Fold:
Amino acid sequence: MNILITGATGFIGRQLVRRLQQDHHNIRVLSRNGMRASEAMGLTAYEWDYATQDVPEEAVRDCQIIINLMGENLGAGRWTNARKHEIYASRILSTRKLVAAAPDSLQAFVCGSAIGIYPGKNDDWYDESYSVPGQLGFMQTICHDWETEAASIENRGVRRVSIRTGVVLGHGGMLQKLLPLFKIGLGGPIGNGRQWLPWIHIDDIVSVYIEAALNAGYRGAINAVSPNPVRYREFATALGKVLHRPTFFPTPAIILKLVLGEAAALALNSYRIAPSRLLEEYHYKFKFDDLTAALTDLLDKDD
Structure:
């Protein structure tokens, strides 16, 4: 398969490229710095600034699958108005341009999304049957509009999948940021610790993307989270046990809000999400559905 990937140098993208190369697919990538991406990953890379340029024609020529992972880092700094515009445009505008540039050879368009499309409150379970209401917060608006842009490719008869990703545990992302504190015994729950954490192991999220790309049965929005979400305090306890460190130092919600402003919602919101379609429609078998086993695997690899 000829597969074009955006965001290939990111946390998920690097592992996805490696797995697809092992299966002998022809991978090409779009990057803001094509030369650096090509040298770092050893594959064909095309330079693309989504904000000012159309998608290079040669990047999509004879392409059968597009996997779109592009998006500004949500957790990098306060959400000023300018930053919110960058976060939004990096997802919606890039997706719009990729859809517009899709060649006649395209069979599937797999696009990122996030569990931020759900309300993020209380203990209620949410799955893909949830109907997005009219009034939306910032994260819900991003995810809703992102999926709408991706779905427009269906008008051309192309299969579309939007992967609603939870908190990915791997050598990067949230876990990488937390490990230094936990390793010196200063880790603990965030806020009151009762909010739900919809986690997924990096191996599983990569497998879900590959299944979505290559399995013609995958369509529409899919929750990519473990079937066993935990509360933040349970996560902190599990991580402390795996590291053999205490977890006595919670981070007060007020501190996060002072430091991160609106972006603190990423850690303080409560998302109890079920991967209903993965389990019931596609019978996906999670490699890691137990948090302690997932953390042990990752930290053993880290050692």
